[in-house]
Amino acid sequence: MFEHFTTAMLELFATSLWETVLMVAISGLAGALLGVPLGVFLRLTDRGGVLENRAVNAVTGAIVNAVRSTPFIILLVAIIPFTRFVVGSSIGTAAAIVPLTISAIPFVARLVETALREVDSGLVEAAQAMGASTRQIVFKVLLPEALPGIVAGLTIMLVSLTGYSAMAGAIGGGGLGDLGIRYGYQRFLPDVMLAVVVILIVFVQLLQSLGDWAVRKLSHK
Hints:
- This protein has 221 residues and is mostly helical.
- It contains nine helices and no strands.
- The protein has one domain: MetI-like (MetI-like fold), CATH 1.10.3720.10.
- Helix 2 (54-68) crosses helix 5 and helix 5 packs across helix 7 (134-168).
């Protein structure tokens, strides 16, 4: 076992791991930058929200749910024309980042919305009574109070993106998933597939442990 692990193969593993890290990091960052504001918007326009607007909330929520309910492998294929338009190709690490980001945005939005719902409504009412603007309520009340929950949600998102990035390997998305499919499956090298699985498990464990640590630190403040 592991007789296929030559220097060239180890270099390929290192490259694939780096591609996976890039995919998860970039799509996670982009998903957070777009998903967090979207989650805040969903909460503000929801029933009892500072900017309550049932119609806008319903339409936005329907769009978010539509994207969330689309299986990732189908999303990968469905947006190939858009991916080509954005990065000029439908294969490779850069191409995989596009559908990963699109899948992350509604995922983050719903997690953030849920975290914001947990904030004591009395704090918001007190801020409103003191004449706080919507911006002040968001940045000085809602987000600070919900921060541990938001960080926990972002951790879940990064773990999910790791699995999605491996799935992207099915259509040449690069990373560890692509390595596992090309060598472990197509070339019948089970030791390579096993190594890919072990690396992904360790990677996910590290992400989860880091996220749990951050949540504990924020909760103690």
